[in-house]
Write a structure and sequence with these properties.
This protein has four helices and five strands, in the order αβββααββα. The chain has about 160 residues and is mainly alpha-helical. A hairpin with a 5-residue loop joins strand 4 and strand 5. Helix 3 runs antiparallel to helix 4.
Length: about 160
């Protein structure tokens, strides 16, 4: 019973909050405010309380008529929208992870190409191993050819 009375009182006060308000000057020259002005007084209606904000409208497209729905979404539609958002978020996360992975690979390739170029330009003797497993040293002409290839590799990998 008490809950019902509290609810009705709150409902009554809420209705008064949304009522039209007026402003007038009484016989003593004082400015008065209220929802019901006295008879014979020139009352000015005040700005009504703001209406609830309407959701922004989407730009009109030919597919917009399919997306526009009337009324609130059903629980099934809410669940479908939630799963759709989850799938989109998962795809976006996978896409960023893939982009980061590719950027790391490119950075590693660039660094290894630069290291190979530094080694060739260092002036040290460069040794390689042939198919028999024997070690041999590169001649100056071979080092020059390898340096040209390394520069091209750096240019491709780092740009």
């Amino acid at each position: 019973m008490t809950r019902t009375l509290v609810f009705l009182a709150a409902l009554a006060f809420a209705g008064a909050a949304w009522a039209q308000q007026f402003k007038w000057i009484d016989k003593d020259g004082k400015v008065r405010y209220g929802d019901v002005p006295p008879p014979g007084v020139k009352a000015t209606p005040l700005k009504p309380p703001p209406a609830p904000a309407a959701p922004p409208r989407a730009p009109a497209t030919k597919d917009a008529s399919k997306d526009v729905k009337r009324g609130p979404l059903t629980p099934l539609e809410q669940e479908q929208e939630y799963r759709k958002r989850q799938a989109e978020a998962k795809k976006a996360a996978e896409k960023t992870a893939q982009a980061e992975k590719e950027a790391d690979a490119k950075r590693e390739n660039c660094e290894s190409a630069r290291e190979a170029l530094r080694t060739l330009e260092s002036g040290q003797r460069i040794a390689r191993t042939d198919a028999k497993g024997e070690r041999y040293y590169l001649e100056d002409a071979q080092i020059a050819q390898e340096t040209v290839k390394a520069r091209q590799s750096v240019q491709e990998a780092c740009n």
